[in-house]
Amino acid sequence: MALTLAGLAADRPLGLRVLTGDDLLDRPIGWVHPTELTDPQAFLEGGELLLTTGLALDEGTSPAYVRRLVDAGVAGLGFGVGLSHGFVPRSLVSTAAEVGLPVLEVPRETPFIAITRAVSRAVAADEYATTVRIGRAQQELTRTAVGKGGPAGVLRKLAKLVDGWVLLFDRTTVTEAAPASARAYGASLREELERLRTGTRVVALDGQEVVLQTLDTSARRVLAVGASLDTAGRHIVNTAVSVLSLALEQDRAQAAARQALRSGLVELLAGGQDELALRVLATTGGEPPESPWSVLVVLGTPAARRKLLGALEGEAVFAAPSGSAVVAFGSGAVVDTVAEAALRIGGLHGGVAGPVAPADFAAGLEQAELAARAAEAEDKILVSSAEHTGRGLLSLIDPVVAQAFAHGLLAPLREHDETGRGDLETSLRCWLEHHGHWDVAAARLGVHRHTLRNRIRKAEDLLGRDLDSPGVRAELWVALQS
């Protein structure tokens, strides 16, 4: 930290006495400049402690002299007494108090060189501390980037090092934030981001300085840093920009390699090479999902498919691009995970088949793709292969028989709905269409999932049948299609 006027005045061996500006002593001293010129403005940069014995000053010339120093932006004035002046001119003190210029009285026993040395030592110490801080920060940022922290870890480390907040943008969308609450600043910076093409821009936000810096990546990425940056802080941000650019490009290359590997594994499975595919997956550090698998094929725009792959990253789902689709498979809640992600993203249509053994993956994939085409044609989020296949079976049933069966089976629901007490038939149809997925079906109906659960429970009571039974669901689906 730079030496301030207060710190210098507190140095007892110097014997300095504060005459004016007690409330302004927190000003940092950039350097010391002794001069007897009555107008030294041309030789000043601002922030100096000016030292003088006042050889050319008196009560009449002192006020104008003080105002010239204020215009030059000096930090303060050190006036040496005991040589040309027995005391600091009264007009100088009163004017300095009026315009806000700190004045320190320097006793005859204190040579100006002693003050210069004190400031010089402080400046050197400050520069050394800055160098050490920058070096340590560079090491910490580099270790974080090459370790497990990755880009997100670099942002968290940078926010801590500059004592501020940091955002990472992909164009105008926030992709990372440190701390998480800093995401709230993203919308306020969007207009500035749209104007920024390359380089650096400094803007004001809520009274705080924000630095926007483009990164050297293939995608248009921008780093935003909200903090009061000193010299070390600016160097640290520059280091973070370089480290982040490398880390993001490395992540992009690794992600592309992972996707290519997964696409290749899907091709092996589809070609009946399940044992080879599982060996390759295990060799490359992947853990194959426990079989049997539910297989999903999801169709949509390239942008929507990329978002889906990003949303499934880190989930207990194997997902890979395959032609103009995303193929996913896994056990357990894999269908719910994919369906919920597709619902959030929008514009996606999926088909699901299985569960199948790895050796039967090709058949499951074909069935899921046919179901996905049906979902796309009917603008549905998810269609199961069983549902899609069942529609073909309806053509084998006599329409009169099918209608009589439907009337008898669904009569309790229709009687309930006709009284205006609910919409059970539509809710049941939607729930079955979406493979029993509560969140997806509720979203399609525009109701809360708890409302849908209550409706399905009511339908189950009226029908007197167990809707968890696959056979019951199949019968109800046939009835609803008749």
TrEMBL record:
Residues 15-122 form the Purine catabolism PurC-like domain. Signal peptide: none annotated. Residues 427-481 form the PucR C-terminal helix-turn-helix domain. It comes from the Bacteria. It holds the Pfam family HTH_30. This is PucR family transcriptional regulator. The lineage of its organism: Bacteria, Bacillati, Actinomycetota, Actinomycetes, Pseudonocardiales.
